[in-house]
Amino acid sequence: MIQIQFNPPANNFLPIDPLLKCGEEWIHDHEQHEEDDDDFHGPITFHVQLPIDTHRLNFNCRDKSSGVLLASEPSVRKEDTYDGPSDPFFFEKGFYLEAKTGFQVWPGSRLMVEAFTCSSLKEKLSLGGRLNILEVGAGIGVVGSCLAAAGGNVLITDLPVLVAHGIGPNLRRNGRANTSIRTDGGEQDCDRKQQCPKFLMGTCESETTIAAIDTESIDAVRLGNGWAKAAVLDWFKPVEEQLTQATTSDIDVIVACDCIFLRKLASPLLTTIATIFEHSRSNNPKFFFTFQRRNMMGLFIQLEELLGMIEERGWTVECVAWRDVVVEDDGVHQNYLFQVTPGAHDRPESQLVEEEKKE
Fold this sequence. Notes:
The protein is of the alpha/beta class. Helix content is 23%, strand content 20%. The chain has nine helices and eleven strands. The strands form two sheets. It has an eight-stranded mixed beta sheet. It starts with 20 loop residues before the first strand and ends with a helix.
């Protein structure tokens, strides 16, 4: 089957918004962080300052960011990056290529954060208000933490090694300036200004999912104007075995940044999204994902192939924003933000009736 090359709409080009300020710095003196008892200290700190009244968010990374920062923003030189004998998590269960790349920040993260916080897309795509958001393939948790600080209730998920050594520690680090509470009790959806929203209470279906993870890493924390919590979600396992029905049935938005690049990941991810679409169909959920073109073939899926897989499921997919990114030692590539909505058979009958009346 011949696939027609995708070309993004010219009018959806989205330049980098200077209101969102990012940067990174090399941590030369690790001893200054000894008071922090987190079990993972990345040698690089990546930071984000949102265009709202909130404190700066800091994230420990394993490696420098790739194609994210402006020339005017502080960055780490390639020659300064970690060059140790081996990765500390190399022998840990579940540490595959997709987990290794999760410990650094990629271009789609900035594009997604801007779309939700400081661009005209926020209103165009109805991304305002306190949304219940599920982030999949979250890496170290940059995007989910930013969306929480902007006012969302965000469940940030990835493989166990990233939850334990990336998302969890970074959530605790950024949540120390706010009040965090345990979320294993209580039935009421209480005052959002003081207590954790019901959406983030009791998210994990099985305790075995988190048995090897510090329990503090799965507590919800207050970030800026919203809340965030970490949980394990492996796309190769049934969603029902990992997250509760109460959680998966109340999701408004799903986001995935820079994590659909290996061909083997595409089908499991789309199956996971399909499950969420079905469980949260009364919320009419949307799925937003970023995709960066790459020169490599073979293991890496091409955009046209991925879009074909999405359309085969009867879903609607639309490129809502794109930009060029400069990747060190790899040239200029296009980075896209897509919106996916479920097909008519995935939506509740009441909503279809309303749509017919409008027509």
